[in-house]
From TrEMBL:
Keyword Oxidoreductase recorded: yes
Organism encoding this protein: Streptomyces liliiviolaceus
Organism ancestry: Bacteria, Bacillati, Actinomycetota, Actinomycetes, Kitasatosporales
Keyword match Amino-acid biosynthesis: no
Domain Aldehyde dehydrogenase, residue spans: 5-457
InterPro entries named among the record's database cross-references: Ald_DH/histidinol_DH, Ald_DH_C, Ald_DH_N, Aldehyde_DH_dom, ALDH_GabD1-like, GABD/Sad-like
Any one GO molecular-function label of the UniProt entry: succinate-semialdehyde dehydrogenase (NAD+) activity
Protein name per UniProt: NAD-dependent succinate-semialdehyde dehydrogenase
């Protein structure tokens, strides 16, 4: 991560562009002190009964629900999420903490193995201090799906949050502290990009998780690999939304609008590429256009607003450039395509068709309110187009015949596929991707299988025959 400028941490209201509050970074000795504290905390934390660790995580979830409005307002202020969606994020994050508080001890229990003589079992032990590099688009949810299972397991976590949501980061750290997590168990770090590599290099850090861009993910993975430490990456996505028939089309279109426009399209698992069979294409496109045209921009804190700003002026500018260049390359603009004439980081809800290989929108992730719609002749062409992507995070398939939907879903090359629902998330379902969307899984039982020592214990009687010894 070297060679980059120092990170800045500031609350900039994306609906107005106003800088509201700034926070200094820490470096050098301050970072070293945080690492030492986290390491000391780990040795004490792992020694506490898992039921006690789970109780702390569960209490954090309860406090999150109690502070729902405060946390939601911070999310909306810092990254522009609609207030109703911000409240939904708080609910989801709290449910994840509650899930691991309830089920984590069972997930971490020793696992017996079937052997002919004596006994053998796997013990699930924590590794140590973990670094989490977190994004801005879900300031609570994406942190707790990393922190929750690992804290129950007995690891301690250092969290480097995104620079645009520092108050959300501090509120989350306070929440764990108020839940009686000892100092060093959950630590927020306002550090520069340059410090991340040094943190991963530290012998007390035993693993790294990143949710964010491909570039940042590659750097974290490279650094972790150099240090022979495990890593987990959840990166970009260009999720498909495959429409195989016109049955219940109104519901399908409604799902398409929701799947694309949730969080103003700023989600790795947002529906981005709409692949529609020819016999329903025109009706689907017309419905999608109507749905986009009905969206009304405004202050994301206003309950009446149905599309908010992007997270920053840079994000809005970059997305507008992608749209313009794709249209210049020969694609057709069905609706939108421009910045909205108002203060803030707003981009019109946009639909593009006629996108072909070589155009920017064909290969790149469009992180905002832009849908690319394709017409295909049949199921095989739909699958081929879906898989012609560097990404492999999520996707969805819509059709009346559930068995057909299942068959197509199993052919789509991603980490997750939903049938008759846009890609979504819940605590008891694994989340993660393949290809350039990353590796590893979070949530469900698998969320406690990434940063763990699954240690074999083999017990034999003292007079057992000595055989099968190998290196």
């Amino acid at each position: 991560m070297s060679g980059q400028h120092k990170s800045s941490f500031a609350t900039v209201n994306p609906s107005t562009g106003e800088t509201l509050k700034e926070f200094p970074v820490i470096e050098g000795g301050q970072v070293d002190a945080a690492l030492e504290t986290a390491d000391r905390a780990f040795h004490a934390w792992r020694g506490r009964p898992i039921a006690e660790r789970a109780a702390v995580v569960g209490r954090a979830g309860e406090l999150m629900k109690e502070r729902k409005e405060e946390l939601a307002q911070l999310i909306t202020l810092e990254m522009g999420k609609l207030i109703s969606e911000a409240r939904g994020e708080v609910d989801l994050a709290a449910s994840i903490l509650g899930y691991y508080a309830q089920h984590g001890p069972d997930f971490a229990a020793a696992e017996p193995l079937d052997v002919a003589e004596g006994e053998a079992y796997l013990v699930n032990e924590p590794l140590g201090v973990l670094l989490g590099v977190m994004p801005w688009n879900f300031p609570l949810y994406q942190v707790v799906r990393f922190a929750g299972p690992n804290l129950v397991l007995g690891n301690t976590v250092l969290v480097k949050h995104a620079g645009i949501c520092p108050q959300s980061a501090l509120a989350l750290e306070s929440l764990f502290r108020d839940a009686q997590a000892p100092a060093g168990v959950y630590t927020n770090l306002f550090v520069s990009h340059d410090e991340i590599s040094r943190i991963i290099d530290s012998p007390v850090v035993r693993g790294a998780s990143l949710t964010g861009s491909e570039g940042a993910g590659a750097q974290v993975a490279e650094r972790a690999g150099r240090n022979l430490k495990p890593s987990l990456l959840e990166l970009g996505g260009s999720d498909v939304f495959i429409v195989l028939d016109g049955e219940n089309l109104e519901r399908t279109v409604k799902a398409a609008v929701a799947g694309r426009m949730a969080n103003t399209g700023q989600s790795c698992v947002a529906s981005k590429r709409f692949i529609v069979l020819a016999d329903v294409y025109d009706d689907f496109l017309a419905g999608l256009r109507r749905g986009f045209a009905e969206l009304r921009p405004g202050d994301p804190a206003d309950e009446a607003t149905t599309i908010g700003p992007l997270s920053s002026e840079q994000a809005a500018s970059d997305l507008a450039d992608q749209i313009r260049e794709t249209v210049d390359q020969g694609a057709e603009l069905v609706i939108g395509g421009h910045r909205i004439d108002r203060p803030g980081a707003y981009v019109e809800p946009t639909i593009i068709t006629g996108v072909e290989p070589g155009m920017r929108a064909y290969a790149e992730e469009l992180f905002g309110p832009v849908a690319v719609v394709y017409r295909v002749a049949d199921e095989d062409e739909a699958v081929a187009l879906a898989n012609d992507s560097q990404y492999g995070l999520g996707g969805s398939v819509f059709c009346a015949d559930v068995e057909r939907g299942r068959r197509v879903a199993e052919r789509v090359e991603t980490g997750m596929v939903w049938v008759n629902h846009p890609t979504s998330t819940q605590p008891d379902l694994p989340f993660g991707g393949i290809k350039r969307s990353g590796y590893g899984r979070e949530l469900s039982q698998l969320g406690m299988r990434e940063f763990v020592n699954r240690k074999l214990v083999r017990v034999l009687p003292p007079d057992a025959e000595l055989s099968g010894i190998a290196g």
